[in-house]
Amino acid sequence: MFDRWVIQPMAPVPARTIRPRWHLLAIFAVSVTLRLLAVAYYPEVPTNDPADYHRLAESVVAGHGYAYKPGKPTAFRVCGYPLFLAATYGVTGPDWLAAERVQAILGGCTVLLVVALAWLVVGEREAILAGYIASVYPALVWLPHVLLSENLSVFLQLAALCGAALLLRQPRANRALALGALLGLNLLTRGGSLFMAALLLVGVASTAGERPFGRRGLRLAALAVLSMLLTLTPWIVRNYSAFHHFVPIATEDGITLYISYWPVRVGDKPIWGNVPGTEDPVVAEAYRAETEVGMSRHLRGVALGRLRKDPAHALKLVPIKLLNLLVPLDWEIIPHRARAGRSVNYGYIALCVPALFGAWVLQRRQVPHQWVLWVPPASVLLLACAFYGSPRFRLPAEPALIIFAASGLLLWWDHASRLSRAAVPVGFSSTGRQARRIAEVVPPEG
To answer: Which helix (H) or strand (E) holds 133?
Structure first.
């Protein structure tokens, strides 16, 4: 019985009851207003990663090129987000607070892309509800008040997912090329999105044709790959010119891989994301390399060599990496007290149960092309297992969770509406029968 309730279509809604234009305006207005308020009342002075991005953007605006110091080019971080900041600074001057305000507006556009993705894959009502949830979702509301690459990366990821959904609806070469360009731009913004790009391209190859991995699907996937590589080419050429080595994405892969399996520890607790200093002999040896490319190669070689000798070491770390990824805490985006060091993500906690239910509902209903929504969560899990997990790294998957939750909540609402409508006539008929019985027993007056 419960299975039939889930599989049957949702209650039809008259077209006039949903006015998409006004809903979209309201969603965008609420989204931008809340994000601007977050930036105004809790501005975050750039430190650590945000300070790096700010310094690189300043260097570009000052005419010193993509470098931490004049005359010393770098490829430690991919260029997309610092160039986005540089474009902002070119208009406003090197003002990180102005950049955060621009990110607040970009955050509103990101919410609209959540609506677009849900509309393309699930439906109109789910899209509108997902938009309202995303507009007030804490992690997305607070994200613009810090200079983190996720501000741009989540926007580009959602644009790529929408591009994939459009490509699956109408398999055309121009849409495949657009998808590849968006994937390339996202890779230039956040190197970890490589997992998402790979899964999405495999999905396109397997579902865009008449049969899995048919000629049409493979051709469209190949066009997307070609477009993605062309988007990356200027960055690759620049890196070869600067370092005389092939650097497709960034030179931070070596240190990231090393600290993913041999992180800094406080007591017995691993602290992922912190870079060890010269107290670690492997890092001290890497610092002796002449270039950052040599440093990255040394650290990558040591990490891979150790993992080949002891593969079980990687498996032992998977449970704690996943725990770090899924824990409902935040220490990088949502504000917290200085002494606490972290805050509770209540929005994520509230989202989990309806998201799991909604994902199950979509699976049972066999919604076409719903696999597109599973790509971000799957890629985030792969990234956490291969490197390490954190609530910040979970953020690219949370728009998909919002869409799943909207689907689950609407199903609950429709079922409750059906029950309430069914209860009314039953109640009236029961009351009528009781009144007739009383009239038969009680004799008339007089």
So the answer is: helix 124-136
β-pairing, 329-330 vs 269-271, is unpaired
Handedness of CA 391, 392, 398, 400 (dihedral sign): negative
Cα(166)–Cα(151) distance, rounded to whole angstroms?
23
From the CB of residue 234, how many other CB atoms can be counted at a distance below 10 Å? Answer: 11
Token pair of 377 as six digits? 């969560």
Q: Where are the domains of the chain?
A: 2-10+17-415
How far is residue 245's CA from residue 237's CA, in Å, rounded to a whole number?
A: 10
Tokens 């000629």 belong to residue = 215
Torsion angle of C-alpha atoms 90, 92, 98, 101, degrees rounded to 10: -80
What is the number of other CB atoms lying within 10 angstroms of the CB of residue 400? 27
Q: State the 10-residue block means of pLDDT for the chain, 446 residues long.
A: 54 57 94 96 89 95 92 93 96 94 97 97 94 97 96 98 96 96 97 95 91 91 97 97 93 93 84 83 89 93 94 93 93 82 91 94 89 96 93 95 96 82 57 50 48
| 6 within 8 A of 364, measured Cβ to Cβ | yes
Do 345 and 139 form a contact (C-beta atoms < 8 A)?
Answer: yes
b/e map 106-142, b = 16+ CB within 10 Å: bbbebbbbbbbbbbbbbbebbbbbbbbbbbebbbbbb
Report the 10 Å Cβ neighbour count for 439.
10
Find tokens 């309430």 and name the residue: 420
The per-type count for the chain, helices as H runs and strands as E runs, is 19, 6
